[in-house]
Amino acid sequence: MTETQEPEKDTKRFQEALKELESADYDRAQAYAKDLLSGLRIVRTFPQGVTIFGSARLKEASSYYKKARELGRLLAENGHAVITGGGPGIMEAANRGAFEYGGRSIGLNITLSHEQHPNPYLTDVLQFEYFFARKVMLAMSAKVYVFFPGGFGTMDEFSEILILMQEGKMPKMPMFLFGKSFWHPLDRFYATKLTSLKTINPPDRKIYKMTDSLEEIVAAANEIGHPKIKTNYYDGFKKAGKLATSKI
Asked: Does pTM surpass 0.70?
């Protein structure tokens, strides 16, 4: 092989590899789009409700499980759809409360290799392959957000919605951290570390509110009211943010 042929061969290999990579990226993008389009289509078929986040590992004996179940019932009594990730733990508890009352109980479930089967207390189930698409739908389907104690997944969901509200990428809807004793250390970290370093502004901590009151959460949902099916606060979200008179 001559010195001229070697670079030509390398160029051909590069082009083939690039073509294969582009094809894989294209297939991946199609899969992402399928997840998003499916979710967006279904989300429009029910009114925006209250999305409840929290650990999948907390069992029925947990006081937080009991409170999430009670919250699901209270929301259903007041005509609000309850939306969760569709799995066990806090998600199951909230769905269970709504389901037992006879309300709308929605689960946006994720396909995982080791866990996360839909809980048995769902009136509607959406199945997702990708976490990011599922998180988009958990956000878009809600008018109020409630975070019960949880692990990395709950913290990830909390942080993502928090930053979207902070940066004006979504309306500042009511956002509750349920369980003051659990969330207080995180709030203090924000106050003593992030605020003092000026990596966040003091008003940023007002985006969310810590509470031990289920009634306060229900009242916030009642104040917003019941948007009609096919409408969404994300449609022209700057106007929507003004309509949502949050107490936080």
From this structure: yes
